[in-house]
Amino acid sequence: MSQTNQTPQNGNYDASNITALEGLEAVRKRPGMYIGGTDTRGLHHLVWEVVDNSIDEHLAGYCSEIDMIIHPDNSISVKDDGRGIPVGMHKKLGKSALEVVMTVLHAGGKFDKDTYKVSGGLHGVGVSCVNALSSYLKAEVHREGKIYVQEYSEGKPQNEVHEIGKTEENGTIITFRPDATIFETLVYKFDTLAHRMQELAFLNSGLKLSLIDEREKDEDGNFRRMDYYSEGGLAEFVQYLDEGKPDLIETPIYVKSKEDNVEVEVAMQYNTTYSENIYSFVNNINTREGGTHVNGFRRAVNRLFTKYGEENGFFKKLKFKISGEDFREGLTSVVSVKVPEPQFKGQTKGELGNSEVTGIVSRAVGESVGYWLEENPIMAKRIIDKVILAATARHAARKAREMVQRKNVLTGTGLPGKLADCSSKDPGACEIYLVEGDSAGGTAKQGRDRAFQAILPLRGKILNVEKAMEHKIYENEEIKNMFTALGVKIVEGEYGERVLDTEKLRYHKIIIMCDADIDGSHIVTLILTFFFRYMQKLVEAGYVYIAQPPLYQVKRGKQFQYCWNEEERQEAIARLSRHENDGSVKVQRYKGLGEMNAEQLWETTMDPDTRMLQRVTIEEIGEADRVFSMLMGDEVPPRRAFIEANAKYAKVDV
Ligand code: 0RA
Questions:
Q1: For residue 463, which phi and psi values (nearest 5 degrees)?
Q2: Whose Cα sits closest to atom 12 in ligand 1?
Q3: In terms of C-beta density within 10 A (0-12 exposed, 13-18 middle, 19 or more buried), how is residue 27 classed?
Q4: C-alpha 86 to ligand 1 mean position (Å)
Q5: List 65, 236, 247, 519, catalytic entry
Q6: Is 517 one of the catalytic residues?
Q7: What number is the average pLDDT over the span 328-341?
Q8: Are 203 and 284 in contact (CB under 8 A)?
Q9: Exactly one of 517, 540, 603, 653 is catalytic; which is it?
Q10: N or C: which end of the chain has fewer CB within 10 A?
Q11: Rounded Cα gap, residues 88 and 443, in angstroms
Q12: Phi, psi for residue 176 in degrees, rounded to 5
């Protein structure tokens, strides 16, 4: 050590050093405990951990720009123009504050409680975790006119904090390469990073963000680059989410206020669809399970619209009660709060627990929306009319649903006649194939292993649930069949919302099997839209899959090979024709499942030992919702733009 005068005792330095390394060793031994896993999610978690620190600088009022670079070797740089991590001696630990922040678990380095922090939320395990899980990390700090650097390997400092030059800027640049011995994959997904950067831009109006991908160049030789900046913040966010859905009111309703150090920001827009979409955030972290802020918002919306409708006599003719959900049909909203000391609870820590926040949000929304209703009577009436329509439709839907559910009880097993069930009754071992068309369904029935595989043929195009009224959905034959075959039903939740009851779910693998052509992929999208809107829980649980039938069979005499893509096809042709390309190699392009016999279908698409299944995940709920509305909704221009932009991808990634 060079600065002995600030170190109380040499022994102290060693001791703290050892504790730091032990801490980071624990992270390396059980990375899952800290970042949730070592799969692609965990890999991306590292980036958010670093970005969160820069966002904290922004929330504290010091950072206006964050730039991210994906380098060709999949290492990542995150640069901000904040204050820069302090580099001075940390008195107690006897080493540079930078080293403490980078090597001591949960140090974080922010010691004041008055600023909002992302830390403590879903992320918030600290940048030292990223360091521990990186084969290489470099921290570069621009501060007080100088540039300081320290490098690490597996979290261990490789040199002292040293000065490498002068600067007129402030800020921090963290560059890290995730450890290949820890992560299952090292490949960063541009779309995942881009999506969150877009979200951060909306959540932090005025903050500039950029993403550069050095792995990809366009025709002009420039790297792929995205810039994000939002002046309008949440109001722009809801407009973005509602792209593809016709607006009901001219501009979003916007709420911003602060009480007891809790900042509340809400934007809401009504559209002409039938679903509610609410996205909530605490200190910029997505709270997927909602919590007290969302409860406060819903409470205020119910209270205000009920009062407004009653006072103006709009509900007089109604013969049934309006439920909370009716007020939120076709409502897209973003609720964002900044809380100094957030408490998270729930299974995935995705739910805000601070009880004081309910009242704060409810009051903020109550006041602003109350004014809005008084000032915008025409828009208000439009909303109330829609609420009445929703209540009427819900009444009809409830009746239709009850009819369907009751009927099933009366007909004994209640299973649809079209279902070829499996013999096992253990849901964990059972699979159901939802098959496009009766004829492919027939082939699948012959080819399956009936011990654990059930087949439910679906007739042609299924209903587009994005356009249909809810009660129509429960009356639709194919949809009724899916509910009863799966053994799930819709019940009403605490707030009158629809809840999927999965207690009697009969299969833990639900496999959508359609033709490998355009019509087939359209049907997959329709079925996925249905699952997304009505059975999201099953998607979240990881139970929904898409079967992958092969695209080609390459054949020469008795030898043949199935191929799932162009590359495999080329390889197979080369392999089977060997030197003499005498035209005896035949390539069959499978367009439909119907072109395969039962045995081929089993071998290629149904046999668990050889088939390929694509699991459907909802990585980004908001994005998935937007995409579904765009692809399945009424507005043509955004859909065309989306399809054109994504034309090179074969299917929508949900
Ligand atoms: C500790 C204390 C202060 C800032 C930071 C850490 C800090 C950390 C990171 C990580 C990435 N970018 C960052 N920017 C800042 C406060 C510094 C002060 O009081 O001057």
A1: -60, 140
A2: 54
A3: buried
A4: 6
A5: 519
A6: yes
A7: 93
A8: yes
A9: 517
A10: N
A11: 72
A12: -140, 150
Distance of CA 211 to the CA centre of its chain: 19
**Residue 63 alpha carbon, nearest atom of ligand 1:** 14
Q: What is the token pair recorded at 22?
A: 């032990």
pTM of the model: 0.73
Give the pLDDT band (50/70/90) at residue 109. very low
Pick from 238, 237, 265: which is nearest to 59 by CA?
A: 265
Under 8 Å between Cβ of 308 and 373 = yes
Question: Residue 382 in contact with residue 248, Cβ under 8 Å?
Answer: yes
Q: Model confidence at 7, in pLDDT bands (50, 70, 90)? A: very low
* CB neighbourhood size of 619 (10 A): 15
Tell me if 82 CB under 6 Å of ligand 1. Answer: yes
- Ligand 1 nearest atom to the CA of residue 80, by list position: 12
CB of 421 closer than 8 Å to CB of 500: no
Nearest CA-CA partner of 323 in 495, 474, 493: 495
Q: What is the Å distance from ligand 1's center to 516 Cα?
A: 52
Mean pLDDT, range 132-159, rounded to an integer = 97
- Does the CB atom of residue 470 touch ligand 1 within 6 A? no
- Give the burial class of 224: count Cβ atoms within 10 A of its Cβ; 0-12 exposed, 13-18 middle, 19 or more buried: middle
Pocket lining: 54 vs ligand 1, CB cutoff 6 Å:
yes
Determine contact, residues 119/108, Cβ cutoff 8 Å: yes
Q: All domains of the chain, ordered by start, with CATH?
A: 15-228 (3.30.565.10), 234-391 (3.30.230.10), 413-549+590-618 (3.40.50.670)
**Pocket flag, ligand 1, residue 213 (CB < 6 Å):** no
Q: How confident is the model at residue 134 (pLDDT cuts 50, 70, 90)?
A: very high
Q: What is the dihedral of CA 391, 396, 397, 398, to 10 degrees?
A: 90
Phi-psi region of 57 (alpha: psi -120 to 50; beta: other; left: phi over 0): alpha
Model pLDDT for residues 428-469, shown as the tens digit of each residue: 999 999 999 888 999 999 999 999 999 999 986 688 887 787
First vs last C-alpha separation in the chain: 53
Is residue 107 a contact partner of residue 101, using CB atoms and an 8 Å limit? Answer: yes
Length of the chain: 654
What mean pLDDT do residues 275-281 have?
91
| CA 114–ligand 1 middle distance (angstroms) | 15
Beta strands 453-458 and 431-436: pairing type? parallel
